[in-house]
Amino acid sequence: MFRAFRILVLLFVLLSVAVGTWRAKRDATDWVAPLDVALYPINGDDSGIARGYAATAREDLFAPIESFMTKEAARYGVRTAYGNAVRIHLAPAVHARPPAPPNKGNVVAVMWWSLKLRYWAWRHDSYQGVRPQVRIFVQFYDPATNRSLPHSLGLEKGMIGVVNAFASARYAGSNNVVITHELLHTLGATDKYDPRTSFPRHPDGYAQPQRDPLHPQDNAEIMGGRIPIDAVRATIPEGLDQVVVGPKTAAEINWRN
Predict the structure, then answer these.
(1) Are strands 227-228 and 220-221 parallel, antiparallel or unpaired?
(2) Nearest to 152 by CA among 91, 96, 225, 72
(3) First CA to last CA across the chain, in angstroms?
(4) Residues 128 and 179 in one domain
(5) Residue 11 lies in a domain
(6) Is 65 exposed, middle or buried (0-12, 13-18, 19+ CB in 10 A)?
(7) Which of 137, 163, 179, 254 could disulfide-link to 152, CB 3.0 to 4.6 Å?
């Protein structure tokens, strides 16, 4: 009898979490009001450079994300009641790093890691402003000692992102591209590049899929990630002024049917 009661309670909790997740996603992508996104700087490599950058990061560094999302939303006829499609809020630096994702883990390992990440995010959420709908934890690394960075990620369940970025104003533009990419993952957008090569998939991963000749492209599709130069080469955009939201991505985040 007691075991059946425990199972019933567990099912109720799981159902409550599922309903809460569904409601949060629905409210986040109805685009009636701006989407509130909190960014949490983290020292990703224990270096003095990253520590200083995370501690002194300014909100205006991330303002291009607001401008980009609002401009692209307007292209699809989406205008919120308060102007901006997204509002970026900078939280205090977090002095802990999130749990690392499993290395090629199975489904159970990934699910367990996802739960651990959501619990970690709840424990380390010190932002005192407006309640964010999306939380992005940005781990900064010293570019002098890190030529490449671990893969960033965005979870639709829980609407949490973990971004790995360079601790330098020189990389602010490309950092914002990655942050926006992972932000859109939390809203349901899917990757539009080949995971083996990171090359954008045609047509959905191209900013101008109907262009003739097709290459070179002028811009990157945000979920395609790169600007195709020819059939095998693509470059990383230096900022959101070189990026667009394609029709399929727009549909995935409820900007179009």
Answers:
(1) unpaired
(2) 225
(3) 49
(4) yes
(5) no
(6) buried
(7) 163
Q: Looking at per-residue confidence, does 20 or 188 come out higher?
A: 188
SS3 164: strand
Q: Is residue 152 within 8 Å of residue 174, measured between CB atoms?
A: no
The answer to the question of residue 202 being in a domain is yes
Q: Which of 51-60, 100-109, 195-204 has the lowest mean pLDDT?
A: 100-109
The pair of three-digit structure tokens given for residue 233, joined into one six-digit string: 């080469």
Over 70: is that where the pLDDT of 100 sits?
yes
Whether 160 and 214 map to the same domain: the answer is no
DSSP state of 111: H
Instruction: Specify if 108 maps to a domain.
Output: yes
Q: What is the residue range of 106's domain?
A: 33-188
One domain, residues 129 and 238? no
Q: Where are the alpha helices (DSSP H) in the chain?
A: 2-28, 48-56, 63-75, 107-123, 172-186, 247-252
Give the 3-state secondary structure of residue 44. coil
Segment 7-50, tens digit of pLDDT = 565 555 455 555 455 455 556 789 999 999 999 999 999 999 99
Could you tell me which of 143, 136, 153, 122 has the C-alpha nearest to residue 45?
A: 143
3-class state of residue 171 by DSSP: helix
Long-range CB contacts for residues 122-127, cutoff 8 Å, separation at least 24: 124/40, 124/94, 124/96, 125/38, 125/40, 125/91, 126/91, 126/92, 126/94, 127/38, 127/40, 127/89, 127/91, 127/92
Asked if residue 157 and residue 85 are part of one domain, the reply reads yes
